[in-house]
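Lab notebook, bench 4. The sequencing result for the construct came back, and we need a structural model before the next group meeting so we can plan mutations. Quick request posted to the team channel:

Model the 3D structure of this chain.
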Amino acid sequence: MSGSNIELFDTTLRDGAQMEGISFSLEDKLRITEKLDEFGIDYIEGGWPGSNPKDLEYFRRVKELSITHAKIAAFGSTRRPDIKAERDFSLNYIVEADVPVATIFGKTWDLHVTRALKTSLEENLRMIEDSVEYLKEHGLFVIYDAEHFFDGYRSNREYAIRTIKAAERSGADRIVLADTNGGTLPSKIGKIVKEVKNEIYVPLGIHAHNDSELAVANSLMAFEAGVTHIQGTINGYGERCGNANLISIIPALELKYGVKVVGRDKLKKLGELARFVAELANREIPNNQPYVGRSAFAHKGGIHVSAVMKEPRTYEHIPPESVGNKRRVLVSELSGKSNLLYKARELGMKMDGGEARKIVEKIKALEYDGYYFEGAEASLELLISRMRGKYKPPFELDLARVVIELFPDREPITEATVRIRVNDREIHTASTGNGPVNALDLALRKALNNFYPELEKVRLVDYKVRVLESNMGTASKVRVLIESAGNSHRWGTVGASTNIVEASWNALVDSLGYFLYRSGGMKNEK
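Done. Here's the predicted structure in token form:
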């Protein structure tokens, strides 16, 4: 379906949505559907139409989308014990969803049949056969998910095989082996899949959960053993510890195994897809997420950077651009001259080795005093520019004062006063705010507004404080990291002091100064 015999089945909208803290709206689900289709996913499982009104509405609305590649699947279970398939509401909801693909799960593990379903092993086989036959009679492409297959296989191999043979015999188009509890080791997955292939002639699939942090490995092992249908979710979202992460599986298939599943051009949009779904899920992508995380191609040690500058393959398993990511070189107390030279080149600055050594020594001294530049690259760029005499601050501080009034029975009042100089003109302003940092921010912006009106585009999106010497109690040194955004760009700045207001002020000043420096509001020399 994607130029190869490997099929990608995405269940982010159903299994992924079961992750704690995730709740997709109907519009979110429709937008994700369009994005998955555009990327080249073969099957998109939209939800369980019998479980909630939102999923019912999804299957009505999804028909309005211009889907060009993917097939939409509706999810459900086999019929209930001791009733006819045509009377089972779950099966009928799938039929009424009016989509081309039905995905149903049935019991494989004898423990579940007798304890959870409280029925006989023979009735469970009839439930599988009747359900698949009923859906096939209605013209659906049927994917049968054998729930808890690997646990069931270990418990009662003969019965586990009988369940999937029942699905095969009644016309299932795909049979998917599920590691539902996520506890099977890769070596066992490979061995069992190979054994099953000798028994079943319908194309096999894998559905792995991540409870042992092996879902991606298990999916790839199943692929090596012969499955041609792989299920997973974007960013590994899913119940408990999540599902197999398609964001890792897809580049592994394309770049490691050489199998075309979406194609190299679409693979370059992998990072974009991961971030798009994460944004709608209201979650951050972990910095260290393979392939697409911010740190996936970040280099800190000086020896590493020196080697990467000569030949990227020395410390990168793939080119970052191939998956929509980019190389980052971090500058910190662990850095060498190579790190700074790379960073300077990245920023368009010309710098010799002697100049780089002096700046690295300054960075190390500042980090000893509590600064931290890995998460504050805007402050780092301004520091380099200052030391090279290329940066003139947009203003000079004469005085900043913060007054906080606390009351026993009402909200506190915070007022900040700032007196600054811009081009030899003195400006004196004051503002109240939601705490000292907000008050300082508002007072400073008020003072600068007439000179730099473009600062209205800047907003603070994150503020973090870390205590660096907890044994000093309230006298401890603190580090403040501020993340700001403006003009479709985000940047971080840092301040450190034993005074939290001073540390916040320094980070705030860098934030506004950096925006002006990079946007052309000030002379920007390299």
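The chain has three domains: 7-280, 298-364, 396-519.
Will bring this to the meeting.
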